[in-house]
Design goal:
alpha/beta; Rossmann fold; Alpha-Beta Plaits; 2 domains; four-stranded parallel sheet; three-stranded mixed sheet; 9 strands
Length: 292
């Protein structure tokens, strides 16, 4: 699918440079006879899967990994997306806590996890006769501490969105133009990213974080994280939604329910929501190649 440059779709103007990137993406995808797309149901992987379907038709398959790092609601949304767009989906059971090193939560945890997960996806894809696996990182992912990208590079997993120079803003605008339900979906990261590096990851802690974030979602918060520091929850929300969180009825409910989940202390981060806040203190320049 191609939209004329500077045309309008769904009331949104699509500029020539963005459409050139999308056309480049389609051309990259058409270089493959078949493709396995690592699909979480998030904004980026949904856009990549949609574009892959446009480029390759039934020769694309979505591979959705299910693990303790992945909230149940995300799997339901991923399943629904595949049904809506007629994409074959393979569910891959994956236990990151069985991977050596991951439960200890070192600074290169994401590298260890991506290496194990994508190794498994590649193996399963080959069994299905598919020799190319793609993932959904974009150009904006180059601006933070992302050790997982090293694993992607080592395993020769394709990153078509980055190769086509697409940014997060490009992806959201094009997703809206194409009518994708994910265009304004909040950004999501695996639940392990809520813990301080060096703090052991357990199923219990992940469950506490997941249920705490489900509560915030049910209360109308749109973009948030519940970070775990020992037995304290540090809540990050959008600055404009801080008045909602400090409203007495909401504040008291959050404190009561998070306390019931096992958090001894419940705090709000006055800095608001931001990605990578757990990366503070990491010396990226000394990260031994973990920064990509």
């Amino acid at each position: 699918m191609t939209i004329c440059a500077a045309g309008k779709t769904g009331g949104m103007e699509i500029y020539m440079d963005t459409m050139k990137k999308y056309d480049r993406l389609l051309a990259l995808l058409r270089e493959h006879d078949s493709l396995a797309v690592a699909f979480s149901g998030g904004v980026d992987s949904a856009f990549l899967l949609y574009a892959s379907k446009q480029a390759l038709g039934d020769r694309v398959t979505a591979y959705t990994a299910v693990s303790v790092f992945f909230p149940v609601r995300e799997k339901s949304e991923a399943d629904a997306f595949c049904r809506e767009y007629g994409v074959r989906q393979v569910i891959v059971e994956y236990d990151p806590l069985a991977v050596e090193g991951i439960p200890q939560n070192p600074a290169d945890r994401c590298y260890l996890c991506k290496r194990a997960l994508f190794g498994k996806l590649i193996e399963i894809a080959k069994q299905h006769g598919i020799h190319a696996v793609a993932e959904g990182s974009n150009m904006d992912d180059m601006g933070d501490y992302r050790p997982g990208l090293r694993a992607i590079s080592e395993l020769k997993v394709l990153s078509p969105l980055r190769e086509a120079q697409l940014t997060k803003d490009d992806i959201r605008k094009l997703s809206q133009a194409f009518g994708l339900p994910t265009w304004n979906k909040p950004s999501f990261a695996c639940l392990a990213s809520r813990l301080v590096y060096g703090e052991a990851i357990t199923r219990k802690k992940l469950g506490m974080i997941d249920r705490a974030e489900e509560l915030l979602l049910s209360l109308g918060f749109t973009q948030f994280r519940v970070r775990l520091h020992g037995d304290m929850a540090r809540i990050e929300i959008l600055p404009e939604q801080i008045p909602l969180l400090v409203r007495d009825d909401i504040r008291l409910r959050v404190v009561d329910e998070l306390s019931a989940l096992g958090f001894a202390y419940v705090s709000m981060d006055l800095g608001g929501y931001r990605t990578g806040s757990m990366n503070k203190g990491i010396d990226i320049s000394a990260a031994d190649g973990l920064y990509q």
